[in-house]
Amino acid sequence: MKKRFEIEQIGIIHSPYKTKEECPIQGSLKPEVTGKIEIYPEYEEGLETIETFSHIMLFYIFDRAGEIKLSRSTFLDDAPHGVFASRHPCRPNFIGISIVKLEKRNGNTLEVSGIDILDNTPLIDIKPYIPRFDYVKNANNGWTEDKKIRQKPPGRE
């Protein structure tokens, strides 16, 4: 049985990227680029002690993603791959995740670097990146193992 869920926006992500064409494929390709995460005032208390972490995971909505296709090529490969075996933004629930470096907290605003998210993207959650829980020593890279990173995905050249 399918269920519907309602997710509440807790803030907004600000970045220098106004278009998909400007945005890097992954934040690690542009670690120097900064952005701001604005948490709505009613959620500010949830930021307590977040500044003790070096990195955070941002969960957001790909609100400007395109058509959902369950199989398509990616920025790493021209061959099609299932959307659940890729990080393509055009997914059934349009949920994105990015790990960014937390530079500073100013009240309900977080300054971050290594951002790879479009400006004015709806934020739905934040979790701390905890290496002892989130890093898996023997994890593999699946089909991406021998693929070179292209700066632009197909259709963005």
Spatial ordering of strands, largest sheet: 1-2-7-6-3-8
The helix count comes to 1
* Molecular shape: globular
Return residue spans where pLDDT drops below 50 for at least 5 consecutive residues.
Answer: 153-157
The CATH class:
Mainly Beta
Alpha-beta content class: mainly beta
Tally of separate domains: 1
The CATH superfamily bears the name YaeB-like
Assembly level: single chain
Could you give the count of β-strands? 8
Average of the residue pLDDT scores: 85
Rg over CA atoms, rounded to whole Å, is: 16 Å
Largest sheet: 6 strands, antiparallel, barrel
Amount of beta strand? 25-35%
How far is the first residue's CA from the last residue's CA?
41 Å
Helix and strand sequence: EEEEEEEEH
Report the CATH topology name: Elongation Factor Tu (Ef-tu), domain 3
CATH arch. level architecture: Beta Barrel
Keywords: S-adenosyl-L-methionine
InterPro entries: TrmO-like_N, YaeB-like, YaeB-like_sf, YaeB_N_sf
Family: Belongs to the tRNA methyltransferase O family.
Pfam families: TrmO_N
